[in-house]
Design a protein that fits this description.
The protein is about 0% helix and about 45% strand. With about 290 residues, it is mostly beta strands. The strands form six sheets. Strands 3-4-10-6-7 form a five-stranded antiparallel sheet. A five-stranded antiparallel sheet has the order 8-9-5-11-12, with no helix packed on it. The longest helix is centred in the middle third of the chain and has 5 residues, at about 145-150. The radius of gyration is 29 Å and the shape is elongated. The termini are far apart.
């Protein structure tokens, strides 16, 4: 037999007595007072580089389940040179019109200083009692500067709690805030060669196997002195386990998105044979692949 408890009947000041009446006997259950201090804030990063974004999950009241969150302000901040605010949702709180997690209208703070973007949300002070724990998801877009850096970039996102009543928050102010970090990987590139006959070598390049975000990427392949491209064989492009595409001088461009390859768009190549003693502009013959 299952029972549901009306949490609006519980208080923070005294023990909570609940009576259950059954045909043959009545039962009385005593619950301790609900916590009055909002304790516990956690932030977890979910990097989604293929989408060019990071989802940051903020859970409040994790260490004080049942505490009322009404009037609590959650403030999210991050360096504006690396991230841009995209959206915020209240996980588990359904929008009655859409049935989806409710979209939150975050308030952008002005004059944050130090190159920080700051957004906040305050749980409604009146109306339905909002019990902890609750989770808000902030999604930030990754700025292009992150991908221009030749080194992997670590993104940071901060969160802090505030309330009109100081008594509702931990006395230790260090427990009112936290942060999370995530590292955005750089595009991977690996190359290997196999001799297939006396004077022929097949070169294989694995590009972006880690599915980092790539935009207008260009792969420069220096063939080395004494090597030339066998254009009669062409260049084979393979995306995952999809059907291979062969590019040749008279057909050196393909739009893979048009073939239903999802997030891959145009792929092309140019071949510079060079004019100088060691290949002209480049020391040796050179292939340029544009994606």
């Amino acid at each position: 037999m299952d029972f549901s408890l009306d949490s609006t009947k519980l208080t923070e000041k005294t023990d909570n007595s609940v009576e259950i009446s059954l045909p043959e006997q009545n039962y009385k259950i005593i619950f301790p007072p609900l916590p009055s201090v909002i304790s516990g804030v956690k932030k977890v990063a979910d990097a989604q580089p293929a989408k060019g974004q990071v989802a940051w999950n903020i859970t409040v009241g994790e260490d004080s389940p049942g505490v009322a969150l009404n009037g609590l302000t959650v403030t999210d901040s991050f360096p504006s040179n690396h991230q841009v605010f995209k959206s915020a949702t209240w996980l588990g709180k359904k929008d009655p019109l859409t049935g989806q997690d409710m979209t939150l209208q975050m308030t952008e703070a002005s004059g944050g200083g130090s190159g920080m973007s700051t957004y906040s949300y305050t749980f409604p002070e009146s109306g339905e009692v909002i019990r902890a724990p609750q989770t808000i998801r902030i999604v930030t877009g990754i700025r292009g500067e992150v991908y221009k850096d030749k080194n992997a970039t670590t993104l940071r996102n901060n969160v802090s709690l505030s309330h009109k009543s100081e008594a509702r928050l931990p006395k230790d102010t260090s427990k009112r805030s936290t942060f999370a970090l995530t590292t955005i990987p750089k595009i991977s590139l690996n190359k290997s060669g196999t001799q297939v006959s006396g004077n022929r070598v097949r070169w294989k390049m694995d590009f972006n196997n880690n599915r980092a975000a790539a935009y207008q990427a260009r792969v420069l392949d220096n063939l080395g002195k004494g090597l030339t491209l066998d254009e009669s064989k062409g260049i084979t492009i393979r995306y995952g386990d999809r059907e291979a595409t062969v590019l040749k001088p008279n057909n050196n461009h393909v739009n893979l998105a048009g073939r239903g390859f999802g997030d891959v768009n145009d792929v092309s190549y140019t071949y510079s044979k060079g004019t100088g003693p060691n290949g002209g502009r480049y020391p040796d013959p050179c292939l340029r692949h544009s994606l």
